[in-house]
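Contributing new records

If you add data, match the layout below exactly. Sequence lines come first and carry their own label; structure lines follow with theirs. Keep one chain per record. Anything else will be rejected by the validation script.
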Amino acid sequence: QVQLVESGGGLVQPGGSLRLSCVASGLTFRMYTMAWFRQAPGKEREFVAAIRANGGSTHYGTSVKGRSSISRDNSKNTVYLQMNGLRPEDTAAYFCAADRGIILSSLPNPNQYDHWGQGTQVTVSS
């Protein structure tokens, strides 16, 4: 049974930073593309970032590009999302997702991912 468990969310002031973590179990982690999505109340789930299994190439959504960095540690079955320069509009629940066979063009599509975590809340407010 695949489990993805996110952590690291919380309340942060505008301009601050957070590092989210997602620990995976029940899968061969190194073979999976890992991604972060976010969803604010009343809005659709939005692609944040992804890191591929082979070679670990990274890809970012336009709203966070230049302010965020995704990385993975295959020895710990963990994917990270470092977010800097946080803005109130970054407030959302952040979800970790995993898929083994996803193609490059489908990375931003949440419907293409097989496994999801429960999410961690990020609130950016003064």
